Amino acid sequence: MVMNDAVAALFADAPASGGADVGNLLNVGLIEAEDVSNAIAWLVSDQARYVTGIALPVDAGFTAS
């Protein structure tokens, strides 16, 4: 789950109302938009010139657990 204004508003009162603490949903907390953009920047860089046809999850290992 990427932290953005919509997610922040959705979970703003969750701990007070007995809801889930969204920060604990992932092992490292919420993913920032910058984390996703860093992955995109790497994919379009020369460093990734031999990378083709992959799915690159940016989810702090959530899908692997």
Task: Describe the model.
By secondary structure, this protein is mostly helical. It has one domain (about 1-65). The protein contains 2 helices and 2 strands, in the order βαβα. It has a two-stranded parallel sheet. Strand 1 (about 1-5), helix 1 and strand 2 form a beta-alpha-beta unit. The longest helix is centred in the middle third of the chain and has 11 residues, at about 35-45. The model has no long low-confidence stretch (mean pLDDT about 80).
Give the SSE layout.
Elements: E1 2-3, H1 5-10, E2 31-32, H2 33-43
Parallel strand pairs: 1-2
Notable characteristics:
26% helix; two-stranded parallel ribbon; mainly alpha; 65 residues
Strand content: 5-15%
In whole angstroms, the N-to-C terminal distance is: 15 Å
Largest sheet: 2 strands, parallel
Low-confidence stretches: none
Q: Going across the major beta sheet, what is the strand order? A: 1-2
Categorize the overall geometry: elongated
Rg from alpha-carbon coordinates: 15 Å
Overall pLDDT score? 79
Number of E strands: 2
Helix/strand class:
mainly alpha
Q: Oligomerization state of this entry?
A: single chain
Share in helix: 25-40%
Q: Order of SSEs, N→C?
A: EHEH
Number of domains: 1
